[in-house]
Amino acid sequence: MALADKVNTLIADLQAMAQEHSSIVLANSLGAEDMLLSHVILRNKIAIDIFSLDTGRLHPETVNLLSTIESRYNYRVHVYYPQAEATQNYVAENGINGFYNSLEARKSCCYIRKVEPLKRALAGKEAWITGMRSEQSPSRAGIDAKEWDEGNGLWKYNPLATWTEAELWEYIRAEHVPYNPLHDQGFPSIGCAPCTRAVQPGEDVRAGRWWWEQREGGQECGLHVAEAPVTILK
């Protein structure tokens, strides 16, 4: 399918989602995929709200995109933050970078800073949208464009599931979609600053996420996987 046709299909799909669900939101991680989706939604005035999670450990370049969205599209993204007490307890017990110590400690940090805020963001919603693509990693291969999110109890849409990396960037550059400058510095996937590094040529696009775990953690934080309950380290 030509890119122009894919874009028209994306617009139509997003409009259909907005018509089907009275409360549907886009989770904007401020990565390239979600910036593209935000651009399409805001430029076409589609009735989909947009939120983002600020973990408190993001790169400055990532946080600055929130201001860019405000000035470019005249839209203020709803931002959710970790619960202060949970964060303080975690740091007090584990240290400021305690997530390096074990997989359990890292997942606990991800839960406090990402998963719990996401649950608040999705509370009362009928559906949510992500920028996940099948091509991103083995753990995301074969994802469906629409799936039931059992953990959060609502529909989850992945409208870019079949988009390639080349198509993504062709559209971003053609439409001058704002994006994180770290993408031009070898960061295809960007999370918290202490947990993200640039990737080397030939590496998986998510190899820079939690690299010290040597793939034992599946390179996911818990937002998009059905996991067993996380033990919260305090």
Summarize the structure.
With 234 residues, the chain is of the alpha/beta class. It has helices spanning 3-20, 32-43, 60-73, 84-94, 103-122, 165-175; strands spanning 24-27, 49-53, 78-80, 127-129, 146-149, 154-157.
Question: Can you offer a commentary on this structure?
Answer:
- With 234 residues, the chain is α/β, with parallel strands linked by helices.
- It is 37% helix and 10% strand.
- It starts with a helix and ends in a 59-residue tail after the last helix.
- A six-stranded mixed β-sheet has the order 3-2-1-4-6-5.
- It is globular, with a radius of gyration of 17 Å.
- It has a single domain, classed as 3-Layer(aba) Sandwich (Rossmann fold).
Kindly list the characteristics that best describe this protein:
Rossmann fold, 6-stranded mixed sheet, alpha/beta, 37% helix, single chain
Radius of gyration: 17 Å
Read across the widest sheet, the strand sequence of neighbours is 3-2-1-4-6-5
Shape: globular
Low-confidence stretches: 226-231
Catalytic activity: [thioredoxin]-disulfide + sulfite + AMP + 2 H(+) = adenosine 5'-phosphosulfate + [thioredoxin]-dithiol
Subcellular location: Cytoplasm
GO biological process, one term: hydrogen sulfide biosynthetic process
Enzyme class: oxidoreductase
List the helices and strands and how they pair.
Blueprint (H helix, E strand, L loop, with lengths): L2 H18 L3 E4 L4 H12 L5 E5 L6 H14 L4 E3 L3 H11 L8 H20 L4 E3 L16 E4 L4 E4 L7 H11 L59
Parallel strand pairs: 1-2, 1-4, 2-3, 4-6
Antiparallel strand pairs: 5-6
